[in-house]
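request received
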Amino acid sequence: MAERKYNFSAGPGYLPEEVIEQARHDLWDIRGTGIGIAEHSHRGKTYDDIVVETEAACRKVGNIPSNYKVLFVTGGSTSQNYMVPANLLAQHETADYLVTGYWAERSAEQAPLYGRVHRAFDGGKHNHTFIPSDSEIRYSENPSYVHWCSNNTIYGTQFKKEPKVPEGVPSVCDMCSDIFSRPVDFKKYGLAYASAQKNIGIAGTTLVVIREDLLDRNPRELPLMLQYRVHARDESRHNTPPVFPIYMCGLMFNWILAQGGVEAIARRNEAKAKIIYDVLDASSFWIGHARKDSRSLMNVTFRAPTPELDEEFLKEAAARGMEQMKGHRVTGGMRASIYNAFPERGCHALADLMRDFERRKG
Amino acid sequence: MAERKYNFSAGPGYLPEEVIEQARHDLWDIRGTGIGIAEHSHRGKTYDDIVVETEAACRKVGNIPSNYKVLFVTGGSTSQNYMVPANLLAQHETADYLVTGYWAERSAEQAPLYGRVHRAFDGGKHNHTFIPSDSEIRYSENPSYVHWCSNNTIYGTQFKKEPKVPEGVPSVCDMCSDIFSRPVDFKKYGLAYASAQKNIGIAGTTLVVIREDLLDRNPRELPLMLQYRVHARDESRHNTPPVFPIYMCGLMFNWILAQGGVEAIARRNEAKAKIIYDVLDASSFWIGHARKDSRSLMNVTFRAPTPELDEEFLKEAAARGMEQMKGHRVTGGMRASIYNAFPERGCHALADLMRDFERRKG
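response:
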């Protein structure tokens, strides 16, 4: 089979080759049923088993407490921008948002349709180069919840630990780009969500981990499909779910467990990111976007001294089999996304080219 | 590779083996990019091409007029139950619903959140055994739109032609289970939608064909992801779309074209359904659910004289490699779903067993 490239895409991202192999097998015939995974009824025994196993593997990977529901909903994280306030925020209440990047901003923008929004931190004026300390956050008096985004793909910044939210207030986290990249104590969260296409599968489904008491909030009438409690009641099968994307999540959870779980994955992610950040730190040529204490282990953002050199670097990278590294239009430069499944040897390949390029152009 | 069974699932349904083969190849490496289809950025060149080609193939299959947008949105048809009224119905307006089955009922149930609902036909009291003639439908005075479901999977009934809606009123059709199974004149429709997992792909995306002027209806403020006009403006990529399910639609559209298009597919579907209906018509044992003039070419619903014999038949069918034929709980009996991709030889296998079973048990 063809050799595969180093794919630095920010999402949909790299999948482990063993996961792809399994999916290729199961598309034709899963578990000897004579029917492919994408063709099984979502009410049949085979999919029943897959749903149960996928949820169990997810709980094991994340050590998710028993008073939390694990849901696989349709759509991406963008759909959570309205699902969260629609389900948790009454019109007269206030929700606090920590605006630390592009996607956190998008989340804060959708909430005013459902209630009041207070920006407890707004990093826009600092060009989102850093993650605030707890003392830099100004919560409102009695927020309905605090929303934050644990990792900012575009700016390449990441919370090293959870922000300390006011006591009794649910912490709602968009974990889209760093879920299961490190151990997390879900007891500290009211709700966490992550679309699958970065660390836990492919585009088409979003994992929602929600503390059960939050299902009782009922701030307004909503269509059935937009109610977390309906997805919980119907065990993520109120309607035909995105069967293949959810199945892929199951393969990814098992892959993470086979790697030694999130603790082992976290050590690998630290090592992988260090390979690239070490080049930035030793360089007088490359310019990192994120402040050092706020650097993401998932997305390394950097640029050369000029946009022309960025272009040249991207071309050289592509010639060496390193693809999809162009930075987002709001930051320019490069973005190397190195999610769980991205191989360490790809980080070395990038670091080598960065050093070599600096020697020649610096 | 393992031999595959005859999969009569009502959805997710049977996929053509050549489509599965292509998908298996492309999951590893699509078009020599060295990156699998599920791992490509939705903003990159490869996916750009796929989106353009998929839409073009869809327009060709359906002969969709140029003043209609072709959208691939997230979720299933169930999400359209609220998207349709949210986008087309103002609170003081009335929408007419033709309630000809289970899913049409589900659609009608969600609309009152957004406006008034008038049931212009309600087949519930006849146990949904037939499709109304135009004279049996009582429209309201000035409906905002007329919603109907072209094929009722659970009851096995199907509109043979479009209901005649009042002039100037958009006809909104749930085509989930018979889209592209026969030629349709989309000019007669304001909006048509179909989740992919029956005739045009796998679960995880829904095709929406919408006449452009309907994008200008703006009855209320909505989150961006719930606005058809946003999906149209952003060419089905407002957020990360369900890349793999959309790609699968592209493969299916090309497969339909390779079969000779919807005209050829329609002839095959007629012939396939006839193989099974001929057994019902010649039988004094089997009981069909649908009235003869309303029979679906996609889902053949029938039962034996007793539930015990139904069970026995399903077991014998499974022993002969015919799977997922159990009827929905509301109808009982059997449901043989024979969508576009289901092979004719599977219909013969079922008809043979039905005749044989009747000989032994009748």
